[in-house]
Amino acid sequence: MDMSQYRDLFVSESKGHIQVFNELIVRLEDNAPDTAAVDELFRHAHSLKGMAATMQYQAVADLAHRMEDLLSRVRSKEIDFVASLADLLLEGSDTLAAMVSAIEADDDRLPDSTGLVDRLAGFRAAGSPPPQQPAGGFDAEPGAGVRDQGAMVPDHQTLHPDSFKSVRVKIETLDRLVNITGELITTRYRLADRALHCEGAQLDEPLNRLSTLLRELRDEVFQARMLPFSFVADRFPRLVRDLSRKQGKEILFQVEGKAIELDRGILEEISEPLVHILRNAVDHGMETPEQRIAAGKPGLGTIRIVVTRDKDYVNIVVADDGRGMDPGRLADKAVEKGMLSREQANALTRHEAFMLVCAPGFSTAETVSVISGRGVGMDAARVAVQALGGVLAIESDTGRGSRFLLRLPISVSIIHALLVECGPLTIGFPVNAIKRTTELRNGEIAGDGGDSFFSLDGRQVPLRSLSRLLGQPSAPDAGDLVPTVVIEAGGMMVGLAVDRLLGQREIFVKPLGIPLNRIKGLTGGAITGDGRIVYVMDAGALL
C-alpha cells in the first residue's frame, strides 16, 4: 500500500506528540513522583512508535521504541526520573523532531540516531542494575497501534462521538476564506456608497441585512482560524528550562490562560517576541539561587505568563520576581551609549525609562552572551507587537521583578481603523493603537527650538506633522483647529497633526507588494467603498 498520502497526517500527529513530550519531561523534572505524567509520556512514545512503524519510518520507530522502554523502567520503579534521564529523553525528543522535519521536507536522509539509541538502551541511573533488554524487536503488546485503511489511531485514545465534529482544514483554505470575507465587506461598502446616489432605490433594509450576515460570516471564519495560546506556549517550558540550567539558575515557570484563543496569524507573529522576552527574563531578570538568598528571597525564582481576554483584545503578561530594573541606571546607560543627552535622560518618565530596553542597540549587559546582550531582541519584540497593531508596556520594581504587558488584537486581517486625510493620501490607524483624537486650537500649540508641543492631561506632548513625516504636501490652512491623532510610541505619547479626521471604518487589510512594503511605517493597504486606497500605518515604527 502506498502510505505517502498519509505523510501529512503522520507529520502533524507526530509534531503534536513531540510537543507534549517536551512539556511533560520538563514537568516531571520539577515533580518526579507524578505517575500520571509518566504514564502519559509513555503513551505518547508508544503512539509515535506505532505510527512510525505503520508508515515504515523504521529509524523513527526504533528511537521512539527505546524511549518507550526507558519510560517503562520508570513506570515499574526500576529507575527514578533523574536529571540525567530528562536530558537524555529531551535529546531523543529533539532528534525525533529533526527526523519528522526531514520527513516533512521529503528528505530521505534522516538524522543518524544510532548512538542515541544505544545510550537510551544502556541508560543506568546511579546504583541501578543493568537494564534487561527485550528479546527481538518491538514488544508484542496487543494494540500497539490500530491501523484501519491507513488511519493511525493510538491504542490509548478512545473515539468519542464529539471527536467527529472536528475536521482538518488546510491553512491555505482558511486564508482564502478570510480573503473572500474581506472582499465581501469591501463590496458591501461599495454598494452602500452607490446606494447614496440612487434615490428611491430602497436599499437600506437589504444592505443592513447584508451587513448582519457578513458580520456573522466574519465571526465564523475568524473562529475557524482561532488557535489556543498553547499552540506557541507549549515550547516555552523547555526553553526556560534549558536557559536556566545553562546559567545555574533555578526557575519555576508557569503559564495561565493557555486555552484562550487568538488568530493563527497573530500567534505565529507573537511567538518570537515572547521568546525574546523570556530569554531576557532568564538572563537579565533572574538571579542565581545564591544571589536570591542573599537578597532575602527564596532560591527558586518564578517566571509566569498570564493570558486574559478583553473583548476584541488579548492581554499577555510576562512577569518575573527577579532583580527588576532601575530607571535611573537605564537612563544613565542611554547617555553612556550616546542615545540621549543628559537633559533628555533627566526628563524621562519612569515608563519612558523602562521602554529604553526596546531601543535598537540598547543593552545593560556588560558582555555579550549566547542568550542576550546585543540589544536586538527587545527591539524586535517591540516592532513585531506594533506591526500587529498591539501595544507593549513595561513595569518594574527594583529588587522585586519586572512585568511585560502585550496587548494584542484578536485578528489583524479585518480591523476597525480610524481613517484620516494626509495630503492626497488616506491613512488608517488601528483603533487600539490610538490613545485619543482631538482638535487643537493654534493657541494651544507651543514651540521650542523648532519643535511643537501641546498640553494633554497635564503632560507636555510632542506634536508632529504626519504630512511632513510621509513627505506629502500639507493641505491649505483649514482654520483655527488642527485635527490631531494621539498615539503612544516608544513609551511616550505623540500627537500627529492630520488634515482631516474621516471617522472609523471596518477595513480588510491586505499586505503591500514591492516597493510599498519597503516603506517604513506601512503595514498594509485596504480599499474603501468609493474606491479610495487606504494605507494602514504603524505610527510607532514610522516615528
Key features?
single chain; 543 residues; alpha+beta; Four Helix Bundle (Hemerythrin (Met), subunit A); Helix Hairpins; Heat Shock Protein 90; 4 domains; six-stranded mixed beta sheet; five-stranded mixed beta sheet; 41% helix
Category from helices, strands and their pairing: alpha+beta
N-to-C span: 60 Å
Number of strands: 20
Low-confidence stretches at least 5 residues in length (pLDDT < 50)?
Answer: 134-164
Query: From the coordinates shown, what is the CATH architecture of the largest domain?
Result: 2-Layer Sandwich
Q: From the structure provided, what is the oligomeric state, counting identical versus distinct chains?
A: single chain
Broad shape: flat
Strand proportion: 15-25%
The name CATH uses for the topology of the largest domain is Heat Shock Protein 90
Radius of gyration: 28 Å
The helix content is 40-55%
Q: What count of domains describes the coordinates?
A: 4
- Order of strands, main sheet, comes to 12-16-17-15-14-13
The CATH homologous superfamily of the largest domain is named Histidine kinase-like ATPase, C-terminal domain
